[in-house]
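Help!! Second protein's tokens look totally different from the first
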Amino acid sequence: MHIHLSPNGHDQNPGTESLPFASLVRARDAVRHALRDPARSGDIDVILHPGTYRLENTLVLGLEDAPREGDRRVRWRAAEAGTARISGALPLTGWQKCDAEPDFLPPNARGKVWTLTLPENACPRDLFRGETRIPRARGPGFKPTQTDRPLSPTTFSFPPHALQNWPDLREAELVTVPKFSWTMNILPLAEVDEDTLTARTALPCTYPIGVPGHDATFEHTLWAENTLAALAPGTWVFHRHALTLYFCTDDAEPPADLVAASLTEFIRIEGQIDQPGLEDQPVRNLSFEGLVFEHGNRFPFHGLTGKGMQHDWEMYDAPSAMLRLRGAEHCHIENCSFQHSGSSGLRMDLRARHNHVRSCRFQHLGGCGIVLCGHGPGLKYANRENHLTDNHLHHLGEHYWHAPAIFVWQSGANRIAHNHLHDLPYTAIVCSGRVKLRKEPTAEGAGTIRWHEVDGLLGADYHQPPWYHGWLMDWWRREPLQHARENLIEHNHIHDVMQIMGDGNGIYVSGGGGGNVVRFNRIGPCPSHNMAEGIRCDDDQHQTLIHGNLIFGMGGHATGITLKGVNRVTNNILALPLTTPRRGMLSLENGPQNGSVIQHNVFLTQSPEQAFAWQSRIHGDGRRALLRDADCNHNLYWCLDDPQAARDHLDREQAFGIEFDGLVADPGFTDPHRHDFSLKPDSPLRDRGFDFLGGCGPSPAFTRK
């Protein structure tokens, strides 16, 4: 059965190709009717013909909108891939020249301001003109000034003239990178005291507002947006209380093709979720093919809610993406584009199993590309076995710079493979289950915890020790609650990440369960001064296999792989950092390392100052992390400028009883300086069990113009 849609159609039509419907809502009702008809069988195709389909409200597809059993499928697809656009924006027409300009308007904006009254339910945080995001009015950037007061998540000091008590202050928002450079917030301003040079936000930041550390370099970490005091040609302001949009232009009037983002969540596939229980009723067998999702609104959120996913990089079970699966199985998203929008592209919440995202593009989004969000710590392991393959993700996090391109939280047994990720402000792939097991409502992730199950497993009096003291036995005790487990992250191509934020990586695994496999990924070059590591097993992460990865051209910390737990590192190439590593090519940061395996890896440096390994402890007291405590052997070391540096390293480690089969030799790469790590015929690696299945040849990024 075929149901046809066209922006030029009419909902009173029969939905045929010659007389199509106009709206997605009408098509949904037709699908619903067809599914109820016992005389009909087979697949149903909803065919969207070229044009733009605007949504004012979220289209919800529930159990009645999908097949209940068998292989029958409902496909929402473009007649021609890339020509059917689903938009959450309002066209802007009817502008009026502002005839009563406020006194605090900047001189360069006077006589150039136009206004428009928007519908009552509109609250745009983004304006677009085609593929161009139009900037909001933005005040001068600054850093918080130092005072004797303790840092606060709401109150901060500012230099003279950076902020003022503007008449429209309550409409303004503060953009801030707080004390820790791995998170940022966008918060409403509450008050500004120009006498004491202090200001307060209406909602709390994730961390105290202060100058960020962790080696990130920011010229400015705070500024105000959305005040008429900062309006300039080419920018805009929206006053929610008056529903008035202001646009400043040097031209006669605003462009005719401006649109204002109004809707964040376009389509939600939603089954019946039993939150406290273990059994849900998922929607099954829906497909979306060849569609373009664009011009969504930014989803606002703040810190200290207890509902944030690690460090508030995203929010738990939230309508923050254009397409959202919430209780869905065996759904397919193929050859779709998620672009030019204020929040995330696609997310799968709570129960999500056996869903496939293939050959999609995620570009120029305000948040993440793809989010997989399972239930918080507990016994409900319902977000799993999804496939994210052959997707292209780039230029994301344009509002929330901390947004990972692919964020897997409390979700397991997924396959993330053959994706191309680049030009990102922060980390490319995050696999995490991090929360603080505390019964404090605002503790990180605490609002997601299924305490009725956690208390039954751990005991109501359980107190989680700091991860760097709890060590492996306590982790095994909690592992059944940590559902970011058994994920397969393979054959991804990652480069040019960590372009803005600090303390991030190519691939990051933290606070998850066991059995995660990170293999055969190509990571590099990543020249940013803020780059930390290519692959990182961070706090509270054990039993991860890191195998066959190529990591090269790291800037910043210039570390290839970091371990803070008991994990396996085998057959990786860590090569040619762009600077002297802050620690080492391999960084061991928490001990003891008994049980870790570090074998058959290749370490290639340019100069003797570039250390092969760093062995210490960066948190707490106790045993250092040492290579000699791990099963460390069969690794190859080579320094191009000074081969003796490799010999000295191996001699030191052999004196501790390890690396007796280690080797100092040129690895025999074809042209490593041009990113070609394929092996020459006489490479010594060919006889040493080296296993890297492809991806070592010339880098596409190197030859790309």
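Here's the second one for comparison:
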Amino acid sequence: MIEKLILKTLFLSALLITANPAFSELTRDQITDKSQPVWRDFTINLVHQVTIDIPFGGLNRLLCLFNKTEYRKWANLQSDADTPAYAYLTNIDERACGLNMRDEPAVVRATQLNPDALVRVEYWNATNAGALTSLTQDIHVIEEATAANPVGIMTIDQQLYNQNDQKMLLRQHSESSRVDDSTIQYQSSLYLDQFVINQSTPQGQSEEYYATNLYFEEGDAGYGTIVNKVFNPVPTGSELYPAGIPHIAGATNIAFSADYIRYERYLDLYIAGNFVQSKLLIESACVSRSVSWSYVPNFGYGVYTADGDRNAETFSAEFTNANNDVVQVQVAGFSVNPPVACRSLLDGSVVAAEPCSGQAAATTVPAFDVPDLTTVVGASGPEYIVRVLKPRKVYSQVDTSFCEGLVVRDTLPTPSHLFFEGNNIITAVPAAGAVLVNDFASDPDLDPFYAGKVYSPIEDSDADGVQNYADMFPEDGTKSADLDYDGVPDESDVSDDRVKFDNLNFDYPDAIEYITPSMYQGE
């Protein structure tokens, strides 16, 4: 995330407890209907210092995913100009990249017109209309990320949408370009529906927007500005993204080296469209780019009933932890509320049992985490499953002397919502054959769809005349194609369940963004 962006992987650990037998009856595996929320709700790693993570963490997750698709291996594989570049099925462990959108394979298409041309990699995370949400990515690579240039020279687009409601949930566009031999400019825009952060929040109720303008210099150092806006019409009386007056907005100016980030964060606060705070400096700190600790916020959990649906009730509950202690928590709908404590931003240690009044470099957060897949028991007896969906990483806040020499500059101009225009992703998923990349080949139990199997692309495993890369059923010689990925071969399939999304639903060319006082105002 905030660490160096050299295609490294980030590991999301799922902690399991040894439960008391009385509390161990209900498990997610017992809910066989995989369409239930307990199976479908997705996991994403968050960062406590969210604003400064926007340009680093989001890019790092994308680069991690593209790296794991092994696109270098398959781009321009064919030397015959009459054979089109093909899409292939890849089953990668997205959790290693800080997110887990679905538990089934994705389709990747990597194309290159000639050895000197840029590489285009497209990634479709959901393949048919049975998917509630679909994640699609498109990257144009001119120069890959390296130690000297950690953002590469590339254009990246990403979108997450609910195809049933035709609702955009997340949209990101970024561009990196060379200013001179030693400086790279990185610009990005990110739109986010709050549903992505908390699946119990209705879609379209609250929205966020972030815009970035950074300059990377030699040695993975640089400076820049990140703008943030939160749209919530209930307290503001305004519209949503992009033309509404944001409820909360601001700008964060940063200066960074390979090891640390120094930042100053400014806030603009509105209620019913009126200023409450304007250009208020609310935070100035130095954080490490590599040292961190973590916690799960209250909204970072998912609490599910015995049928796998999202819980909507409020009650007291308990579970047995790894030390065989019975622990009390409060459940409020989808959230879990353990006791809070004042914890150090340096290492997460408890500074005080009460909220952090008067404590420097500390934050009030839950005193402990409820481990993933814990079974909790309500006061009246029913059991519930708790999933950890949004763990939060905290990059260690250190003494400002560690950031000596890092100079935070004035606010820079950042992209507007028009940065998205003309960059819509192709949502129609191309036909693909057998899985060519499978992260779970060494652990088939984690792969319910292909049992860890992976196939050689230019072999014909079932001798039906169709090579594996184009054969959706590589071990069945009687069938080979499944254009809509529903498991029914095209020869006997009368449906067309391919993912469809109308990008025009997210075009706002006539909107005028509201510029708040903390943002760049021009000359």
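Reply: Different proteins will give different token patterns, so don't panic. The chain has a mean pLDDT of 87.
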